[in-house]
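Our preliminary data section would be incomplete without showing what the modeling component actually yields. Below, a chain of 330 amino acids is followed by its predicted structure, encoded as tokens that our downstream tools consume directly.
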Amino acid sequence: MTRIHVLDDATINKIAAGEVVERPASVVKELVENAMDAGATAVEVEIMGGGTSFIRVTDNGRGMTGEDARAAILRHATSKIAAASDLETIATLGFRGEALPTIASVSHFSLLTRQAADDLGTRVDISGGGTPMIEDAGCAVGTSVRVEDLFFNTPARKKFLKTNATEAGKISDYVIRLALSRPDIAFRFINNNRMTIMTAGDGDLARTIGSIYGGDAASALIPLDFYDDAADIRITGYISKPSLIRSSRAWQTYIVNGRTIQNRAIAKAIDNVYRSLVPKMGFPLAVIVITVPQRTIDVNVHPQKTEMKFEDEGRIFKAVYKAVLDAIRG
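Predicted structure:
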């Protein structure tokens, strides 16, 4: 009898959930990115209990047909790519086809979706990766995903979560970064029945920053506008005056080709400019929007897609440094 065997789908999904769904904020990020990819102009995120007891993400995007809704809950089922070569020109935030089945494997999951051309929508209910219950249902155009009792069947993962307030803060951070990456989408974040974030969705990044961080922050913004012709790198966005600094990088968002990422080179470039200007330690508010040729980056680095490989990270560092320095000098 062989000792090596292929794992069943339920076990595979739970293992994948450990990479894709690290905490409630990971669930919100995946679901909101799906909504953004679906062409939504309004996205509402509602949570209870730090996201462990209840998460609901509702959008007014194009929705799905019944057939697509059935396929969406299958592992590695996606409408974003068809072949490995598509990763070189990927324009969507999602592409792995892992989020929905892995979330459904560690929660009580419900999806409600409808396209404008359909009279009825589709409802999909899954509990802990069990057999899906699929039926027709009346609903608005778009998609609404409800996730309850997250990690109820993986107690080891649930044990390592922080307090509800900390987990809610992580979710808020993700919503803020996604809202800043798409000022043309109206975002609403409701935490324990209290509206904490609301943006207009009018496409004005400065107004979106003001909606999130307040009027004082908005009045201290310096616009960025830089272009490296040789490398085809465009940098826009805003950075705060040296008079407005914070004790951490919490108010810094880096957006590359529409995707919010974490990157040490970008952070270091900003630091190097401000260390020569501000005698005390601190970090400015920054929303750095970078556009590069898609072929020069690799987004398929980590399941959570928060990291990105650059063809020439040194060139990115120099471009950000020059963009910030020119703006501050001006």
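Residues 15 and 219 are 47 Å apart (CA to CA). The first strand starts at residue 42 and ends at 48. Preliminary results of this kind motivate Aim 1 of the renewal.
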